[in-house]
Amino acid sequence: MNSYPADPDKACPHEDFAARVEISRLTASDDDPAAIGYSADITANCTQCGEPFRWIGVQSGWRADRPMCSADEFTLSAPLRPASSDPDFGLGIPGYAITMR
Fold first, then answer.
1. How far apart are CA 51 and CA 72, in angstroms?
2. Whether 90 contacts 36, CB under 8 Å
3. How does pLDDT run across 6-19, given as a tens digit for each residue?
4. 20 to 30 A Cα–Cα from 15, which one of 47, 48, 68, 85?
5. One-character DSSP codes across the chain
């Protein structure tokens, strides 16, 4: 990928994209391998110029009960659970939120 912007005087049309998804298996500790939650970290870039895309309308931080983004808005962290699990699976995991003032 090229560094962005390729040419600030000629904007890229952003017609092709690549997304990367990393799924983390959350455990209570290194000694207990049982999964207590899962989280997907998602990033997206233009494949033509390499420019990363930012997530809109999502608060910064990390929570087990709703999607949030990184402070730079480049990574969306979204909690997820197996379809066969209870609806409250993964809830109760500590998180944090970044508030702008």
1. 14
2. yes
3. 566 678 999 999 99
4. 68
5. ---S-S-TTS------EEEEEEEEEEEEETTEEEEEEEEEEEEEEETTT-PBPPP-S--EEE-SSS-EE-TTS--EEEEE--TTS-TTTTTT---EEE---
Structure tokens at 66: 């709703």
CA distances from 62 to 11, 30, 43, 75 (A): 33, 20, 15, 11
| Phi, psi (degrees; rounded to nearest 5) at 8 | -60, -20
Read off the tokens for 1.
């990928």
pLDDT at 55 over 60: yes
